[in-house]
Structure formats: C-alpha cells, structure tokens
Amino acid sequence: MIQLDNISRRFRADEVETTALADIDLTVEAGEFLAVMGPSGCGKSTLLNIIGTIDRPTGGIYRFEGKDITKAPEPQLARLRRDRLGFVFQSFNLIDELTIRENVALGLAYRAMGTSEKRDRVTAAMDRVGIAHRKNHHPHQLSGGQQQRAAIARAIVGDPKLILADEPTGNLDTENGAQVMNILTELNAEGATIVMVTHSPAHADIAKRTVHMLDGRILTSARRAA
Amino acid sequence: MIGTSLLTLYRSLTRHRLFALLNIGGLALGIAVFIVLSLYARYEMRFDHFTGASKLWVVEETYTRPGDPVQPNPNTMGGELDQLKGDFPDLVGTRYKGIGAIVRKDREVSNEDSYAVDPNFFQLFQYPVIEGNPTATLADPDGIVISQKMARKYFADTSPIGKTLDLDIGGAVIPYRVGAVIKDLPKNVTYQGDLFVRFFRERFSGSWYDHWGSTEVATVLRFSDATAANAFAARLPDFLQRHAGPGHNFSARVADMYHQNVRPLQDMHLTYVGDRTMVTTLGLVGLLTLLIAIVNYVNLATARAGLRAREVAIRKTLGGTRRALIGQFLFEAVATVAIAALIGVALAEIALPFVNAAGGLDLSIAYWGKGSIVAPLILAVLGAGVLAGIYPAFVLSHFRPASVLASARAPGGGRSGARLRQGLVIVQFAIAILFTTATAVMIAQARHVRHADLGFDRNGLIVVTSFSHGALETAQRHAILAAFSRLPGVVSVASGNNAPGSQDTTNANTMNRPEASERKPSIMWVEVGPGYFTTYGTRLLAGRLFDKGHRAADDTAGTDRHPVNSVFNASAIKALGFKSPADAIGKTVQGNGPQTVIGVIADQRFTSPREPVRPTVYYLNTQRQTAPFASVRFTGDAKTMEDRLEASWRGIAPNVPFAARTVNANLYDQYYKADTQRSRLFTIGAALAVLIGCIGLYGLAAFDTSRRTREIGIRKALGASTRNILTLLIGQFLKPVLLANLIAWPLAWLAMRQWLMDFDDRIALSPAYFAAASLLGLAIACITIFGQAFRVARAEPARALRDE
Question: Which residue ranges make up each domain of chain B?
Fold first, then answer.
C-alpha cells in the first residue's frame, strides 16, 4: 500500500538546516498494523505526516497504492486524504465549537454524499467507538478517553483504508489507552491498515510490526511473532 | 459543508461574544452610515427624475461684465420663447413664472405656492395626475391645476373638478375653475408648485416681457438628446445678436457682455460646484466608513487566525482543499456582513427620522418596487463580504496542517500579518483624522458665516417680505411703515428693494468715471427709503448717508434731476477704480446719467457667503421703490415683535397675508441651511467613522494584549513597572495613529482648501484644525487602548505566567 524510497525531510530556519528524516525506505502492506517507536525528535511524527500527505518530503519517492504521489498537486492529495486516509492525534484535535456528532460528521464534510447516508454513517461510527450517548456534548464536556474515541470515530467515518495514529494513547490513562488500542485492533482486524506512532512498548506489541527510529533513520524493523 | 460552516460561525460568534459584538457591531454601524449617506447622495443626485425630465433643458443667462455674478441665472425675459419659436419653428418649450397669488376663501386669505405656466407645461413636465386633464385645463385662461394638498385644503373630501378658487393676483381677484389635480410633488423636484394657471402677457407680465437680460420666467426647452441641445446652444449667440443687439437692449456686440446657454434640467439642483462636491463627498464618507468597518473585520479575522489554525489543519487532514477552505471563510465573511447588514438596516431605519429632521430631508428606505434597497444591499453585502473575507481566507487556508498540529502554540499570522494590520490601522486612522479635520473646518466655517461681520447688524432685525406684494398700494405701504414705527419695541423702520436673504431685484447698470472711460463695471442699483442705513446699522466709510438735512437734494422720487446723489458700497468704489472711499466722495460717476458719490458704505452681504458682494449703488426714493421689503429694527423678543407687526398689518392690509422673518432666520433658510445640514450629516458620518475605527482598535488591543499576557508577566518578573508596560503597549498602538497623520494632513489640506475656495466669505485654513484633529485622534485612541493595556499591565506576573 505504501512505499517510501529514500525519503528525506529537511527543515530550514534562517541559516540552520535540520534533517528530520534521512533516506527512509519503508513499505507498508495493506492490512498491516505498524507501530513506529523512537525517542522524542527522532522523526516519527514527521514520517507520519509525510505518509498522511500533510507534509511533503524534500527528497525520495512516495508511492501510495503503486502511484507516485511525491509531487502530486495539493487538490489530488486532499482527495486522497478525504477518500483513503483517517487521522488520529495525541491531542484529539476536536473543534470546540462543534458537538461530538458534528465533529464526527466533519469527516464527511468534503464528500459528495446524501444527508441521510451521512447521518447513518456518523451514527454508525459513533456506535462503533461507543460515544453515541455523548453526541450532543461539546468536546470540553468529555473525558480524554471519550474525546479520543470521538476523534477515532471522525477518522473512520469515511471508511478509510489507512489510519494514521500519532500517539493516540499519549494523553490517556491506562484504561482509556487500552480501550483505544482495542478499537484500533478491531479496525485492523476488519481490514484497515494502521500506522501508529507510540512511545508505549506495550501498545507497540499489539501491532504486527514495529519499526524503531533514531535521528531520522529507521534502525530496526521487526515483525511480531505469530 | 455550508451547514457546518454556518454552525461553526454561529458557535464562534456566541462563544466569542466580545469579538462578535465588535465585528458585527462595527460592520452594522458602517453599513447604517453607508445606507443613510447613500440614500442622501442618491436623493440629491436624482433631482428631477420624473418621466420625460431627461429631455428638458433650461435656458440660463449670464452677464460677463466686471462686477456681474459669475453664477448663471436660470431665468429669461418673459417673451424669449416667442422669439425663439420665430427663429426655430420646431422648437418645443414652456415657461414657468412665480406669481405669488393669494387664495381667498370666505374671509380667509392665504399665500400659496402659485405659478403661471404655458398650456403645454404638463406635457413637458409629466407630473403624475390624479384627476382631470392639466393641458386641457390650461387651454382655458381661467383654468387652474391644483395639487392634492390644495384639493384637501380648499375642497376637503369632495372632488374639486369644476369648482372655483378665487386668486388675488396683484390686487385683481380672478375666479379660477379647477380642471385637474396633480399628485403632491416630492421635495426633489426643482419646479415645484401647488397652483398652476395659464401664463399670458396681459395678466402676468408688463414692460419687462421683452426686456433682454431680465429674469421674469424660467424658459424650459425639450430636445431629443444632448447633441440636439448642444447644437441649439451653439446657435444662440447669433440669435441673441439678431434679437437683443443694437436697436434692442444691448447696443454693441451682445456676446461681449451677455450670453445664454442651456443646462439639463437634471443638473439644475446642484449648480454650485461646491454643492455637488459636498454631496459626492458625503457619499464618499459613507463608503469610507464602510471601508473602515471592513478593515476592522480583516484586522480582527487575521489577528484571530491563530485561534482557528487547528480547525484549518483538521479540515485539511480530512480532505478539505484550500479552495474549499477559502470558500468556507468567504462564506463566513459574507454571512457575518449579512447579519451586520440586517442590523445596519434596522439602525438606518432608527436613524432616518433624526437625519431627516437634522437635514430637512425626506429620506426613506424602499424595500419593494422602484428604488428598492434590496438588490443593491445584496450586492453590497456580497461585495463587502468578499472584500472583508478574501485576505483572512487566504491567510487561514494557507496554514500547513503538519506544522500547526505539531506546535503547542497557535500561529499568529506572522510578521507580514502584523504589518498588514498596522498598515490597515494607519489607513483607518488616516481616514478618521481626515474626517475630523474636515469636520472642524466645516463647523468653523458654518460658525463664521453665522457670526461674521456682514457689514450691517444682523441681530434685532426683521424683514417683512409680504411688503413687496403687488396687491399693496403705495399709500398702504406708507401707512404700514408709519404704524410699525409707532409700535412699542420698534427702534426704526425702513423700506428698500433689497433685504438680507430676500434680494429679489438684481437690476444693474454699467458705470464709469468720466476720466477712466475704459472701466465699465456692472453696478447693481438699489432703491431705499428714508432711514434704511440707520435701520440696518450700516457702517459708513466716507462721506455721508442719506439724511433728513439733505432729503430734498437726495430724493429721486418724481424728479429727473441730475446728477443724482448716490451712496456706493466699497466694492463699487473699488470696481470704479477710486483709490479709496474718501477719494470718491464728491466725484461724478456716469451711469444712466451722471451721479455724485455722497457716501461710501462697507459692503453689506445680503446673499450667499459663496458669492462675492456685488458692487452696489443706493438711491433714495421717499415715495415708491420697486417691489420693496420693509425692515424693522427692534428690541425684545422676535416672536412678540412679529405678532405685533402682524396685528398692525392686518389693520391696514387685511387682504394680503402677512409674512415676516428675522434676518437671521431669512439668511439661514436661504443661504446657510443647506451647508449647515450637510455639515451636520458630515459630522455624524465622521463621528461614526471614528467610532468604528476605535471599535477595531479596541478589538485589536484586546486580542493583542491577551496574547501577550505571558510576555508581560516575564517583563514584570524582570522588573518592569505597570507604567513601563502601559507605555510599551499604548506606544505600540499609537505609532500607526501618529503615522496616519502624515497621510491625513495633506489630503485634508487639499480637500478643505478646495471646499473653502467655493466661499467668498471664508475662514483661513489654520494649522490649528489639523493639530486639533490629530490630538483628538490620539486622545481617542489612547482612551480606547488604555483600559485593555491597564488591565494587562496591572496583572500579577505569577498569574500571567500560570495562565500560559
């Protein structure tokens, strides 16, 4: 599904250049559950952002489902995100002004779809993560776990093929973290490909494969024993 | 997507109430000012827009001798149309003459707005007809067309058609038969009237009918288009030379001293350049005020952009394209402006009665039919919405989701955003200071014309305008003056055919000094009765006035004696080339005959402050002046005096309605009112523009200071005092206001210099107005910012740091 060849990402601020990613080669097959680990600043989130097309590499080639999208125009990438990707963030990133139901519906905002179908999908997504009873609440009225479940509902409402999760349990306690991991595992079991950045070895163990990064490079890639 | 956008907008407005109040409130005020001033400009610019008006041209005449008024006179002699038709048989034209008729009904007498017109008048002036046929009515010499108002007044609820109305015209009572009723005319029609009778020479004209250069009637011509009108105008000089040249009024080449032109009827209302400029300026004030409100929106939206960065990032990760986001933010801007527009319309509705009262107008908002505000308002909302939203939309949609989501702090829009906001504040305050300077100059000029030395004492003086009515006999006039002079409180009484605000006669002769024959200025002549100058408190510059001791020598009544003893004003003495007033005393001047200068008085400004005082010569006539006004110098209350004068009048001339006003009221109505009202409108617009600018500045200050809470906490922890912080914050916001002066001053100087040039009697454009406006702008800005800055500056540093 994803093929990164020799991907690099450099940031330039004034006279200082920082290399966030260097010569990354990574392949993610459809249906995989990949965990990305490494210390802070090693480039995990940058890698996730590039996979999610919300950041562009400064070198290398990025193929998604066999197509080179490294230099694809922004509208094409927006369509890709809209139709194929789902994002889950550590800090949830729900919009405070909208209710939970409206936040989840935002995942379909840019799709041409009938109102009733949208409504059904939103309801299904909220049911799927067990948040439907708080649909009329605003984010600040919910616990962190509930907010993250709402964010997952928003990510899956469009039925994405690839879910990108950036430390989805980072702001949660153990119990809520476990709940979120259960949902991600179920989604993976249902066919979704998941790439998850995490600091938690326990949560990385749930993934089928784990890559370790350091200083913008992939050090190891190991599959979980069956 | 629109649904979500609307929802987000609604929630954002209700959650950030101060922001919503500032943004929508400012826009609503801006829109209200824009609506009211647009209505005003439209009203003033759309005089005479009835059916067929665009094909009408008015003949106007101008004397070009030194001393003649520059402003063309929109009237001609009574018989010009007859002569024009002789040379141009296909010409279609009509005439309109005020006749000052008195309506007699039972024992009541009333002055009504009455005119004599040609029978085809209503074919050219297609005023809406309620009942009857105006053209057929005027075919009858005793037919009359009346307005709805007159129909109600004199015939109550019954149909007036076929009924009789008695008109006293110059003392002769004529029963007129009502043949048609027209709709009451709106105020923005030049040729007004309530009663229209047929014009014919025998009844309404005299020896002046064929006197070229006289101003008896308005002659209005119909042309198919401007080309035809211009082609006709080009043939006027030859026509005038044939008909008015040697053997007629003018003894030489007519074009050397007199010419005629045709002016479109629809251009008649704002004939002074200054009037037109002022109306355009007021429309511009409305537009600029709206612009200031739009700038507020842009400033607040870009300043708050950071707060929405996360939303933008999320929308982008969910597949929102930049175009979709631009569309969303533009939609939000248009929706915000639409909400503000609804409130703005409501505010305009509330304000209109006050504006109408202040400006003597009848402006109203039409929602349906012709002149409806709906379509232009929708266009304005879309235009203003796009203008307000386009930059914030580009700024907001530009955020890169990866960097926004990775950052714990919201982006602030960057240096370029801050610079733009500062630039926009400079523009806002430049406009505000420009308006404030202009307001100060206008108020000072209005005050100047109300209080300036006019060459006579304007206070404690009443002009009895009905004294000139043609129905009064000379003996009655003498009796009235005698009766007035006996009334308690009356200091002196006089008559003369010239009075402040009522200068109806403008007769002039060319004159020269025998030793300087090349100078032949045009000098207006005025006939005055005994005590005229004493009553006016005229200032004598040299020689003497007409006095009792010289009455026999000075009086021109019933004698052809020459030279005539004459009093000249200072302008006439200057025009004639005398070195000084004293130099002129005893000298002979040649006019219609020789005349001796016995006295020189200061110029008396009886007309508009825009026009120069005409060179004038005064003759004493103790018996009868042409169309004279009575002037009464009095002490005590003006209303009481007017009542006494009226009671006295009724005892002598019960058949002529009494009409009198104080000189101040007469001058105000005739010459100061329009400028004063426009100045008031300008002041209101300018004050609101400044207020809206302050709303924006307050919003920016509130936002900026809250963003800098942590920085201020650190500064205070490092030893900065509250005063240091206040100086820092206020200084930062005052910089753009100070810079705004650099833009405002030259613009204000140019604009107000141009405006003042239109006045002959004007104030000097002192730097004090500019300094005062700038200080006021700075003070207002200081007050606006101070509250916010003080709150943040006083906060405990520990608390500020904890907040972060």
Answer: 2-44+273-447+683-706+732-784, 57-267, 461-669
